[in-house]
């Protein structure tokens, strides 16, 4: 019997590709579908291309992997164009290449799944008669704001960040003006209009897949399904299929060494510090993090990057600095003598660490995270409490969700991307999540770990939702056969 062929399209950035690969793996391994991953690639550093290769090699035995080089954008983008504008332009301009890749396939896919920046390409699904889904690799509250932004665009006068009241989204928690996603920070920036366009594109699929689970975000998911709330705008089913998280990659020699060190540390005693695939700190902030770690006297593993000169997302598209500097000596931008003073209690990893492997190590008991959603899920599924340190994209919303609603972490008093978080506060937050028995934040992290596992097990809410999607995919195949 012929099996469904699902094409998954990922926009540039490891943070986009990794969740798409995980979804592809499940569809291939669990449902035995033919899966082709279409990855629009961006320039990557040496360390990241290692991760990319290892992510691809973890999947090539089950999925086809096609690299789609982005179109030539010279002349289309200013040097300082923001990340969302870049992503939208890249995806729009690459649509022709995606069409020709699909039309040249001998076994035409019957299903197309795109990430939120790929909705332009959903018209291809229409063209080829495919079932079409949007995969939101983030959470349902963020998705609600994205969907509702075109309405807020009409309702709200002036800058969102200057509003006195929180932004109301039907059926969901309001969003504080300072927590809005990056592209909403300045309505005069070109990426804002692109972002409104992304929001409008969310209604173009036959269904939405979200990397969350019912128990975690019941209220937002209900709103997205309720005709009188956001469901009235969306009008298509919403499947909470998460948490889909990355399996640990085969360790490199430096990871093996690090794991050996972790093996010797007491249980839940080490704080892991990382700002995601594209995040960097200013020089001043890097120094405060170092001093905060020293002050806390806790054990740590810190993924250190060269400080940025103004943009926390500077590493995302290799804009300027922060990336491709694997051979940098990290002590160049740390306080003098820091490395030597802390070498017994701390490990510095330049640029990129095997995060999925480190977070599941029993010695790791805390996570200083930029709150990218994949990192959040990796923290939660390992029951690790977090210091929520948002930098860009939707990370401020994620941090608020984690610290204030789910109570699985703490947040600095100031917004890290705007002001420097001081060493005393850093040390205090570390003690908040690491010390005390019982520690309510750690207890909560354990509960959420359990809830995530329940959602994914046979009969669990996410397991069942994925089964429903798989049934639709099988239906799509029958439909295509009928057409033929
Ligand atoms: N990651 C990693 N090592 C690093 C930094 C990041 O393995 O040093 C992985 C991390 O485990 C996660 C992904 O990169 O799977 C980052 O995705 P996330 O959504 O957290 O953040 P973003 O891509 O926005 O930075």
List keywords for this structure.
single chain, 484 residues, alpha/beta, Rossmann fold, 2 domains, 7-stranded parallel β-sheet, 6-stranded parallel β-sheet, 17 helices, globular, binds uridine-5'-diphosphate, UDP_glucos_trans, EC 2.4.1.-, glycosyltransferase, UDP-glycosyltransferase activity
How would you characterize this protein structure?
- The protein contains 17 helices and 13 strands.
- By secondary structure, it is an alpha/beta fold.
- The protein folds into 2 domains: 5-246 and 456-483, Glycogen Phosphorylase B (Rossmann fold, 3-Layer(aba) Sandwich); 253-448, 3-Layer(aba) Sandwich (Rossmann fold).
- α1 (14-29) links the parallel β1 (5-10) and β2 (34-40).
- The radius of gyration is 22 Å and the shape is globular.
- The relative contact order is 0.12.
- Residues 319-324 have low confidence and may be disordered.
Give the arrangement of secondary structure elements.
Elements (H helix, E strand, L loop, with lengths): L4 E6 L3 H16 L4 E7 L5 H12 L5 E6 L14 H21 L7 E5 L6 H7 L2 E6 L3 H16 L34 H12 L5 E4 L7 H8 L5 H4 L3 E3 L12 H11 L6 E5 L8 H14 L2 E6 L33 H5 L3 E5 L4 H5 L4 E6 L3 H9 L4 E3 L6 H11 L3 E2 L12 H12 L5 H17 L4 H23 L1
Parallel strand pairs: 1-2, 1-4, 2-3, 4-5, 5-6, 6-7, 8-9, 8-11, 9-10, 11-12, 12-13
Helix pairs in contact: 3-6, 5-6, 10-15
Uridine-5'-diphosphate binds next to helix 1, helix 12 and helix 13.
